[in-house]
Amino acid sequence: MGKVQIVGKRGANGSGKGADGKVGASAVATIADDDETGTAIATGGQGGRGAAGGDGGKGGSARAGAVVDGIFPAAIAYASATATGGLGGNGGAGGNGGDGGAVTGARAVSTNRAADGLAQAGAYGIGGDGGAGNGKGAHGGNGGFASGVFASATILSPGEVLATAYQIGGNGGAGRGGANGGNGAESRLVNGVGGSAGGRGGVGTYEQYAIGGNGGASEGGTAGAAGNASVRLAMYDMAQAHPGEKVQSASVAQGGDGGDALADTAGAGGVGATGGSADASVQVSASTMVIFSVANGGKGGNGVAGGGRGGDGAARVVGNQGTEPVTVNAVVEAGAGGDALNKGNGGDGGRALYSQAEAQGAGFVASAVVDTRGGDGGVGVGTGSHGGNGTDAGPAYAYAVNTRYASGSANAYVDLRAGNGGAGLNGADGGNGGRAIVTDMPRAVSRGSIGLDQFGYGGNGGSAVEGGNGGDGGEMRSTLSFDVDRVSPYAQSTSLRVGGFGGNGGAGSGSNKAAGKAGNATGVASVTGTTSVDTLVNTFAGAGGEAADGAKVAAGGNASSTGSATSRSGIAVAEGAAYGGVGGALVGTGVGTGVAGKGGSASGSSTATGGTNAIASIQAYAGAGGDAYGAGARGGAGGTVGRLTAVAEGNGIVASRVSAVGGDGGDGYQGAHGGAGAGVTLRNVGVGVAHGGALELSQIAGAGAGGSSEGGQAARGANASSQLTYDESTLATPSKTLTLSVGAAGGAGGDQLGDSGSGANGGTGAASGAFGGHGGGTLTGTVTAYGGNGGNGPVVGLGGAATATGKATGDVVFLDSIATAGSGRLSGQATAVAEATATSGQVDAHAIARGNGALASVSGEVEAALSGHALVAASAGIGGTVPSPTKTGAGITVQGDPNAAGLAAIYARNDAIEGAFAKDSEAVATAIIESRNPGGAELGTVTSTFQIRVNVGALDAMGETTLGMFNGHALGKGFDTLAFTVVAGDEDDYFNPVDEVTLLSQRFGDAKAADAYFADHVIDLGNLLAQTNRVGTLVLTVTMTTTGSGSGNGYAASLLLGDIGDSGVDPVFGGDTGPFAVSGGTADDHLVPSWVTSPVQAHAADYWLA
């Protein structure tokens, strides 16, 4: 191991008035060794201090060199050379500082001649810092320049090499007592690294850094300028005698920071200096490569009167002739603006001048990546001033070429970020965020796959929290179009990914002030070609700025996503989503009756035209309203959903999918009210044509939730409506299969967070579908509706109603209508209707009401086989009156926790049921079942199911579970068979599962026997709580199935299901009265009499557990 270290002698101080300090001595250190390690260190001598009126001496220069060459099996050959220029001497009173010493060379060369070894070289050249100047008219010394820095690492057999070079300009000296600051030295590094990795299997890593010196600070004078930095690399590894298999390289240029402008003794001072610029340019030819070209602008200097502008940046990288994977990266980060130290504006951010990446290869992947960012603004101080503005995202270009055949891919990615606005203090306004406007920046050519990504990010506005206007968030707009056949006609597939984020508005405070506006977000992607193509567009709008102490609040930004994909012979997919921004919050004093910011809107469209399959999907999520604080204020309204369309056309699998969600209302705290959620209405926004293929249409609407409130009024959930009509009767070539779905979900009511008051009611959900004209194929339709849950609170809000209505015609039809009411103090009413005309298939209506306590839910479902026309209907609710029969089609109506008046009417006509239930019962719910055959002469089957779910852990106690049956009667000419069953099961008890058990099963062959059975008949199902463990969800299912022919024939019966126990036992399911009545009819295999004590009864107890 060899090491040489030389330190130059310090220059003598000036002696006598006006005498300058002497120059520091130069230092030269070199070593050449065949040992494993050689280190050379040279440090120039410091310049002498000047006497009064004299200048400081210049720092001494430095040069270092190290060469290591030998055979080091399985070891490291390491050469290191470090040269540091001497410090400039400080000037005497009224004198200038001495310049820093220069670096005239730092060269490290390492060669390892052994196999499987490592060669490493590091060269470091650091210019000396300038000395301080003293007094007005003087200046600090300039930083010393560094040059001649080079590191080379070579291995003759395949192995690893690492070459690192740092070239750093010296910092400018400080200016004291009114002197100007010295300038930082620039740094220009060209081909500062080299070497080779010894053949196939070898890996070479080459890193070089050019760093400009910082400008010197000044007390009352002019701040020193920053040093600029540039780095260049041209490396042709494949031309080496022993080229490696892979090259990894990073070339980084870092501009120096601008000097600070500090206050003099009187408090006066200037503006900070501009940050140094950075420029990086790289070109590499290698088999496999990962290359970075990086440019970072320097920060602007801080200043008493304002901050300096940030330094600019530009980067370019080219990687070519690769035979294996190639990835090149151009990275630019412009410098941030400096801060104002007293009253003044913050410095604007530096500019991202350009960034360019080009990749060319013949391997599996060729990728060009651009990542660039505009500079952030600095902090502004004082009324009338503002924070620095963030700069716009600069121009960029990414280009990838892959000449490999169909297995190769070419990817070009562009990611542009605008700078953020600087904050405003002491009455200053916040700076505006920069814009990100991105248009057609990535391009690629390939015989295989192509991937193009283009994203933009608007800068956030600066906040002004001490009495000022907030800065506006920057807009994001990303537009990308690509014609595959024109640019890359042999590509097998092409994917476009587009989108980004709008900037958030900055907070504003004080009367007559305003919060910053949110940045909108717009994304547009379009691709056409012969082969398979797809687009994905996702946009996120910025949030509105917060308003404090009487400032005007800002709404959330608007988002829009538009995608189009056209393939002449392949698959086309266009997908997108848009997210509106959140409204600004309303806080602080003086809010009065103010309203927080409204949420931003969301809109979009997707269009897919495919030679085979085509899928178009668009989703819109409007922004939530902002929160409000203070009595009398109100949360912001939720944002609305704008125009939406999804159009798909193809010749195979074709799908059009649309979903939209309105914005939630903002919450209210400290006595503020909740904001209104936004309703959503969709009508036929999806279009699809399959030309004889398989067609799917989906349309879903979701309303926004109402805002919660702490001591004010919570807001009601909004309503949602979705209507879809589709008719293929006019099409020359109808679809082979149709899958159609439409849904709507009402918003939840806001919670009451205070100690008194009520949660708000849930919104309604209404979905309807009319599907017709489909011949020769299968139609599957689903209509789904959800009511919003009532808000929680000391008093729980009411659940919202849900209505699902479906109608279809065709050859083979499967139609489901499902309605789920919202839970609450009382549930909403769930109504589901399904009507169809077809030669075969099935219709299903399912209604579900959700409880808010021990009674988790009640539901009714009717299924009917199709052989002509059929109409089935189901209704369910919790709380309220005993239901009436539908008297149309086959139906079931279920009501949990019915009122006392309806139960009294049942008792008046049924003595046995009255005796069992009226004086000592905890009842559950009521229901009516009407099992009408929908078909004509053919045999039809109708199955009606009533189901109840109980939160077992919420039960207090339970007696004998009892079933009352009454009012059984034939419909029309009756039935052929009727089956009736009662089954208990456990849904959620994972650790202690209980098998499903049949409590009751009965079958009938004629109406007379059924009438006798369903006439004021009571059956004890046993104490189902005896062997339970009080966890999970207990499910009790009652099923009636009838078969028969002739339209309108069937059976109806009524049931009452409840609990009989001691009068002191609490109600099992809650509610005022509790019995559960079911009307309708159906039966099953055998009866387990109540007087038989059997394992069946014991097992049944496991289900009602607790």
TrEMBL record:
It comes from Sphingomonas gellani. Residues 44-59 have a biased composition (Gly residues). It comes from the Bacteria. Residues 38-59 are annotated as: Disordered. This is Uncharacterized protein.
